[in-house]
Amino acid sequence: MTDASPLGADEATFIAMARSGDTARFALLTERHRRELQVHCYRMLANYEDAQDLTQETFLRAWNKRESFRGNASLRTWLYRIATNACLDFLDKRNDRTPVPIELPGSGSEVLYLQPYPDRMLPEDPQESVVARETIELAFIVAVQHLPPRQRAVFILRDVLGWPAPKVAGALELTVASVTSALQRARVTMREQLPGRRLDWRGPATHELSKDERGVVKSYIDAHERNDLDGLISLLREDLRFAMLPESGTSTTTAKDAVDGWVSGGLFQHGHDDWRGIATTVNRMPAAALYLRTPGDPEHRLFAVAALRIVDGKIAELTGFDATGKPWLGLPPAL
Hints:
Layout: H1 9-20, H2 23-31, H3 34-45, H4 48-64, H5 75-93, E1 100-101, E2 109-110, H6 126-129, H7 138-145, H8 149-160, H9 165-172, H10 176-193, H11 211-225, H12 229-235, E3 236-245, E4 251-253, H13 255-264, E5 275-282, E6 285-292, E7 301-311, E8 314-322
Parallel strand pairs: 3-8
Antiparallel strand pairs: 1-2, 3-4, 5-6, 6-7, 7-8
Helix pairs in contact: 1-2, 3-4, 3-5, 4-5, 8-10, 9-10, 11-12, 12-13
Organism: Amycolatopsis orientalis
GO molecular function, one term: sigma factor activity
Domain RNA polymerase sigma-70 region: 30-95
């Protein structure tokens, strides 16, 4: 596994560090890659906390293998190789990290271990780190989970990061023919999971929310704060796709049936009717952080985050996440 560029300053410094065992210099050289490696692990695993753990495992392995680094590949490539294989080792040991069938006939499967990715933890330079909006959105992350682990790794390295086939083959200890075959099968699955979506994942993609998206999020929060059920229904598409994780039960439902279901579950009823909200983003998607004040509590407590996919001014997909006990979301715990 080699890069075309000659030995760079970082690589030469890393080799010198490996000989001296300088932990401070090791941290200086590797920490600058933490955020992009964590996004890479997240794409592999769809779970923010797992991605954090596997990024730390990557640095531990890199430290233990530091003397094996020869500079034949860039330091960044070497770290990606370690991170990818650390994720594959993790997936080999876990039988609960695959999509599970949805109970409703014809509804496919869902990823119960999916967690949102806080935008504040994305790399600051999206061009350098290849974090286009479309490759971090929940729909893409879920679709990738339907690939077997090694196909997943090949697809991400080839079609997201843009690595050439020989470089991927070296990283995963596969033949170039195996990489090509795995990529072809992965692309077929991705077309099935994301019909109508573009397949050139390395192309430019927008990063900023549109004015329309921001307006819908504001209206969604306002409807909660006013307990305006009709207003909430008006924001939802009639073929709304809804999930509340980590509970199972992704469904496609009408707007009215969705809201009726939330009400029958206790929301917008006494004790669950005093809402506040703030607009935010996760996975570079518009989102609403919802805070609930229960009787006797002087403050509104962080309750859930609703990630929204908005199409033509309506919410087409709503993925809710339990936000309690997740400080890594970077949201105020109370309002």
